[in-house]
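Researcher: I'd like a candidate sequence for this fold, 699 residues long. If you have to choose between options at a position, lean toward the conservative one.
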């Protein structure tokens, strides 16, 4: 076995025996397209990064058990090779639990069907499946590790285990040690890291909006390990029905400078480039955009944040020898929440003046008084200001606008999606049950959709408004009676819903029915699988969709039987792709506009403007979208008016709004042709006449 060029001491990661300041950025290969990767690497290098970090997405590589896919967006090997070609190291976070706001936290959906499995605890069925995948993956990427001459310098197994560790107690500790032992047995030739909870044998790293306040505790627990910040959150992800999240460049720069000042020597931005959750790859409620207000935006372009941070990175690299030579900086108290950190001595010293207060504060240093803005760091050398986290240079500011391409769309047509009883007989495969059965049992997460149909009798004495109550149901339900849409799930929805028998898994709908027999049809729509136990207060194997409890009309339980039909007819006949040529499409007209369950086909010419393109889905309501046969993701033009999360108050800026959580959807250049077809499956009814193709302009 080759001697590894990667090690560490109490101060930093060592590469070929030299302490190295790691400035890293997370770029997830499936959330962009291969033609975007070289430019992402180039722009990361331009902004002063020396490392790229990525998770590995088991849920995408092995959608069907035993069938592996490393092609196209999943070509992890090529992604890492490109990083090396651009002079960038790689941190590979193998997981296989990765969280990442991805479907099922990175686990393939079929894993929940393994008999007697319990995930992320000392459970043999789970550990056997995990070990099989991890060993397969490691053998695949083995030439990419640093001891083989490759770019991978650090690797991570598991992820943020402290978030669930208390649930599993001693069995969880046994599992975590098993993970660490597995890592050692793999002989990766690079150090192992584990963030937010680590077993013996791995470097424990930190996550958060800020991590300077974790350094003292880290060194007390791990005096032999450097302070590495695995996830520096430069923004936050968005969820449908919640407002857009923003974090300022000034605050991100403060966090990084403050961490380095206090003795940190490795920072990884999560995310550096967020990208897009294509297809049905996002977790429950997560928007298709994973922009994260990251330094490189969803389309891979520079932002004010990347420019401002780039100046900080350049400075830190120029002083990296000084920063890494000092075992710890000299510290001085300048006020209740003000500190100075000094590296070096006399005229060569590098000084960090830090204000941790949410209000500005005057500080005195070297016979000079400085007024520090709230939450800011001023860096001095030879008595001169060389960087200020709260001051952005005018030339670094970037403004983004979306411009409508007015001549792009040439034709709009539609095709109706039939309800299950009107499907062709060859497609009808309903299950008949006396009680509703959870939909993943039948869909295996290969579709968002499942129909539940039964009879509903309304007696004469129940005439007037009534209430349909569904207990044990998820995620979104559209209620049809006798073929007419009566109601849909109310918003906003909650990301962490608590126990499966709790109030967030009960939905009520009020509407009026005439006395007599009616056909009740429920179209249950998944919004993605959970990413962790805490979202349902149970092991992830308990994840459920559709209807598994009961339905009551004015308190009376509907006795069934229930007919359960997974999917859509249009999905099975591929109306979004090759099957479209076999269907009858009608020109857009009043019949289909604002009516539920319609497929829309929008033809457009590729604009000649340079740069990224998006589609503005204003006028539509909820569904799935495909570009030239490839799914660009779920769309939902629901208002982002949920109350803001208080736990990241003063860090993440949000404003409840009637604007949609996401309005613009990425059309990857790699998927475009000269003449293009955008297909929308609209669940609730929309008007595609308002849809526009937009180019992006930066000033």
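Model: Candidate sequence:
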């Amino acid at each position: 076995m080759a001697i590894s060029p990667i090690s560490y001491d109490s101060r930093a990661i060592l590469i070929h025996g030299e302490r190295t300041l790691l400035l890293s950025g997370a770029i997830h290969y499936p959330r962009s397209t291969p033609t975007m990767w070289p430019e992402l690497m180039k722009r990361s290098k331009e902004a002063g990064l020396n490392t790229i970090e990525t998770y590995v997405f088991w849920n995408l590589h092995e959608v069907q058990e035993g069938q592996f896919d490393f092609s196209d967006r999943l070509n992890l090997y090529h992604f890492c090779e490109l990083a090396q070609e651009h002079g960038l190291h790689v941190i590979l976070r193998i997981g296989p639990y990765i969280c990442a706001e991805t479907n099922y936290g990175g686990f393939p959906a079929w894993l929940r069907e393994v008999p007697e499995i319990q995930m992320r605890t000392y459970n043999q069925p789970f550990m056997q499946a995990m070990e099989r995948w991890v060993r397969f993956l490691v053998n695949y990427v083995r030439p990419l590790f640093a001891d083989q001459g490759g770019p991978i310098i650090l690797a991570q197994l598991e992820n943020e285990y402290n978030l669930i560790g208390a649930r599993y107690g001693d069995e969880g500790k046994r599992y975590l040690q098993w993970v660490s032992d597995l890592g050692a047995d793999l002989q990766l030739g690079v150090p192992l890291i584990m963030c937010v909870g680590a077993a013996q044998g791995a470097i424990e790293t930190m996550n958060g909006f800020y991590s300077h306040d974790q350094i003292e505790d880290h060194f007390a627990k791990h005096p032999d390990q450097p302070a590495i910040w695995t996830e520096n959150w430069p923004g936050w992800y968005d969820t449908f029905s919640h407002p857009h999240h923003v974090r300022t460049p000034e605050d991100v720069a403060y966090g990084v400078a403050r961490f380095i000042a206090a003795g940190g020597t490795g920072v990884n931005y999560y995310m550096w480039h967020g990208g897009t959750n294509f297809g049905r790859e996002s977790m429950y409620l997560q928007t298709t955009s994973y922009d994260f207000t990251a330094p490189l935006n969803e389309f891979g372009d520079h932002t004010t944040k990347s420019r401002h941070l780039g100046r900080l990175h350049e400075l830190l690299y120029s002083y990296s020898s000084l920063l890494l030579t000092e075992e710890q900086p000299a510290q001085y108290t300048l006020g209740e929440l003000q500190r100075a950190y000094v590296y070096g001595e006399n005229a060569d010293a590098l000084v960090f003046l830090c204000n941790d207060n949410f209000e500005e504060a005057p500080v005195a240093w070297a016979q000079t008084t400085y007024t520090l803005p709230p939450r800011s760091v001023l860096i001095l050398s030879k008595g001169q200001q060389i960087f200020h986290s709260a001051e952005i240079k005018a030339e670094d500011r970037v403004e983004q606008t979306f411009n409508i391409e007015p001549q792009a769309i040439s034709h709009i047509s539609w095709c109706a999606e039939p309800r299950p009883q009107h499907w062709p007989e060859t497609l009808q495969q309903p299950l008949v049950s006396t009680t509703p059965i959870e939909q993943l049992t039948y869909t295996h997460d290969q579709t968002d959709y499942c129909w539940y149909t039964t009879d509903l009798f309304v007696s004469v004495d129940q005439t007037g408004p009534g209430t349909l109550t569904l207990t044990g149901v998820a995620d979104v339900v559209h209620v049809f009676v006798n073929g007419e849409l009566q109601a849909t799930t109310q918003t906003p929805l909650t990301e962490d819903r608590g126990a499966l028998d709790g109030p967030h898994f009960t939905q009520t709908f009020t509407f009026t029915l005439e006395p007599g027999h009616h056909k009740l049809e429920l179209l249950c729509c998944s919004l993605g699988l959970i990413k962790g136990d805490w979202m349902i207060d149970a092991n992830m194997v308990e994840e459920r969709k559709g209807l598994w409890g009961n339905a009551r009309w004015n308190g009376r339980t509907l006795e069934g039987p229930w007919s359960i039909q997974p999917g859509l007819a249009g999905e099975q006949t591929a109306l979004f792709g090759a099957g479209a040529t076999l269907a009858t499409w009608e020109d857009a007209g009043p019949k289909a506009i604002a009516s539920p369950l319609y497929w829309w086909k929008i033809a457009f010419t590729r604009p000649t403007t340079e740069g990224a393109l998006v589609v503005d889905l204003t006028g539509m309501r909820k569904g799935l979208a495909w570009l030239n046969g490839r799914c660009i993701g779920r769309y939902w033009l629901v208002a982002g008016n949920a109350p803001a999360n208080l736990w990241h108050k003063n860090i993440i800026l949000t404003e409840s709004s009637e604007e949609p959580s996401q309005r613009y959807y990425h059309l990857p250049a790699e998927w475009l042709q000269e003449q293009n077809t955008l297909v929308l499956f609209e669940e609730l009814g929309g008007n595609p006449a308002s849809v526009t193709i937009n180019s992006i302009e930066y000033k």
